[in-house]
Predict the 3D structure of the following.
Amino acid sequence: MTMLLNLKYEIFPTEEQKDTLNRWLQYCRQTYNSALLDKQRKYRSSKQSYTREDMQRQLTIDKKKYYFLKDMPSQPLQEVFLRLKKAFENLQGGVLIKVEPQYTSQDCSTCGERIKKSLSIRTHICPKCGTILDRDYNASLNILQKGLEHLVVTN
Ligand SMILES: [Zn+2]
């Protein structure tokens, strides 16, 4: 008989460790978003799917380019790719997901910072992480992200 065990640990990080954990979460989020963009681009240009191997290869390139990715352990980033893959496999079956629209146009799709803007402002400019995107495109990334998060949670 096999048994799957799920262990939970409570951790008590120091302030410095909290900073590190937050930074890693941020990288995971950025990696998820950029892998998602690459996936969409590849599909649009060649109708081919962007595989986990492609993501892995891109990560190796990114690690050479962005020094801050180097001090991050690679397992969480691998996990990000796995989640993205699973989310897409689930999507291909055709799923309708209801997403709460609040803040999708205000929140930064890269770092999550909430930036209040009036309807007349068509460009999303994030003072925190420097992301500049068309307002609607930023919102669509947030909606997609919310939908995918929902899938990851429910599956
Ligand atoms: Zn941002």
In short: Strands lie at 123-125, 132-134. The CA atoms of residues 65 and 135 lie 28 Å apart. Residues 18-92 form one domain.
